[in-house]
Amino acid sequence: MSKLSFRARALDASKPLPVFRCEDLPDLHEYASINRAVPQMPTGMEKEEESEHHLQRAISAQQVYGEKRDNMVIPVPEAESNIAYYESLYPGEFKMPKQLIHIQPFSLDTEQPDYDLDSEDEAFLNKLRKKMEITPLQFEEMIDRLEKGSGQQMVTLPEAKLLLKEDDELIREVFDYWTRKRKSSKSASLIPTVKQEKRDGSSTNDPYVAFRRRTEKMQTRKNRKNDEASYEKMLKLRRDLSRAVTILEMIKRREKSKRELLHLTLEIIEKRYSMADFGGEVMAEVLAQRALVKPLYTVPIVR
Q1: How far is CA 291 from CA 201, 210, 265, 284, 298, in A?
Q2: In CA terms, which of 180, 194, 264, 292 is 20 to 30 Å from 105?
Q3: What are the boundaries of each domain within the chain?
Q4: What is the mean predicted confidence (pLDDT) over 206-217?
Q5: Is the pTM of this model over 0.85?
Q6: Burial of residue 160 (number of CB atoms within 10 Å: 0-12, 13-18, 19+)
Q7: Could you give the C-alpha distances from 261 to 255, 258, 268, 282, in angstroms and in order?
Q8: What pLDDT, on a 0 to 100 scale, did the predictor assign at position 1?
Q9: pLDDT of residue 19
Q10: 8 A C-beta contact, residue 229 and residue 214
Q11: DSSP 8-state symbol, 70
Q12: How far does CA 105 lie from the centroid of its chain?
């Protein structure tokens, strides 16, 4: 008996489907060697995400039991519901404002900073208030300016004085606290940011990286090519067109200058004709007087 194989085929509404009765079905032990291997369809996930062990356990449990069970749940971080200080942070006296979006076009400096206070900052701020006056918003603005002015390398104390524009003693206290907290922190910045892919491609295996580049080019519409080559061609075309426009503008200015020179030459010839200067004596006299007077402007050279 030849080895039978099974291949997944799409259903066709124009072809009838065979219907078998119970007695027409063959014995299973005779056809146990049937190869029913179905090609694996793409899941739409990244390869690193497909190999995640919680997902593989859930898929294996579903294949074994055939139904959803408790051990098939992928763990997620739990959210706390009973918080003791919730009422102090969110009082119940809330009123819906007239405008939910406020635009401040003439006072952009009053925007809220991206840095937010935490419990450690509040403890330091309470100690600092005993010596000098400082508000939580002012502290957040100072830390925000230090973070945005640092980047990968931390700013120095003289640079911090130029960024903050506060009292020297206050700047020194906040700068020392920010330096200690920045060094003890595991991340490069105290402001949470979206983790993106590095330029050298070394973070491709990190599942927490957002907006990753695709290693393989996806097939798009046949009548529309969205690839890098087309983009570079469009940039080159735009650069060539801009150069053509610049050249045409310069040609226009040149032709205009030539036309003005022609009109001036014609006017000079008419004046000489009216003065009967056929020998060029008057013209030579005018040129000699003009050579004695130094012009206050540069005469453009027209070729």
Answers
A1: 71, 74, 19, 11, 14
A2: 194
A3: 113-184, 239-292
A4: 68
A5: no
A6: buried
A7: 10, 5, 11, 20
A8: 46
A9: 81
A10: no
A11: G
A12: 24
